[in-house]
Amino acid sequence: MIIASNFKTNHTRASARAFVEALGAPKCEVRVFMPFTALDNFETNCQIKMGAQNFYPVQSGSFTGEIGAEQLEEFGIQSVLIGHSERRHILQEPTTLIRQKFAFAVVKNWEIVYCIGEPKEVREEGFEAVKAYLETQLEGIDMAYERLIVAYEPVWAIGTGLSASVEQIQETHQYIKTRLSAPLLYGGSVNANNVASIVGLKECDGALIGSASWKKEAFLEILNHTTQGEIR
Ligand SMILES: O=C[C@H](O)COP(=O)(O)O
After folding, report:
1. Sign of CA dihedral 72, 52, 5, 46
2. DSSP reduced 3-state for 71
3. How many CB atoms lie within 10 A of CB 97?
4. In testing the pocket of ligand 1, which one of 149, 189, 191, 194 has its CB within 8 Å of the most ligand atoms?
5. Which residue ranges form the domains of the chain, and what is each CATH number?
6. ipTM, 2 dp
7. Nearest to 164 by CA among 123, 192, 225
8. pLDDT of 31-57, one tens digit each?
9. pTM of the model
């Protein structure tokens, strides 16, 4: 079971440190994707890994405003988010760059949390359209990469307070599981009230959580509701 917090554009260096220190020894695997400015050499329980929300696929170089492998490696960062919908849709990150990032992270042997998910208009077209859309996001991706984790995050459920139903998550996860054997997370308005029913699904290996995870007390409550407690 993997429970991940994506801080997005939240937290300072001080509040991020307080958050990490509050985690203690969780019963499941935890990832914290924090802003670059809050990265540090944290001493944590081995089940807790710090991750990067983004990177530019170079070791170092002349890419003003970007962060490369050299900067992440200084903090021992080995888990990266790729393909998050906010980068695909708000930052207009092109598919070619997403694939380059993926290939680069594979060469670095980093853990990859690769995000896929359909927008509302595609969901409204029906499940065949959802499957076809997800296929386009899996194209060019090495689904056999051994350090791959996939996060299914329907765009319409992100930050809206309206999670996909367990039936929708189950149906979609069942389909994705026919395409890959990597651990599969769900993301999109997960909170302390719904996390147990979502991660309790047979096809769900954990959750990638945004807004409901930003306060340390709230994240600890989510971890408490994640009763399976097995460690992958
Ligand atoms: O990375 C996390 C997802 O974007 C979910 O965000 P959310 O929990 O605020 O809906």
Report:
1. negative
2. helix
3. 14
4. 189
5. 2-225 (3.20.20.70)
6. 0.99
7. 123
8. 999 999 999 999 888 899 999 999 999
9. 0.96
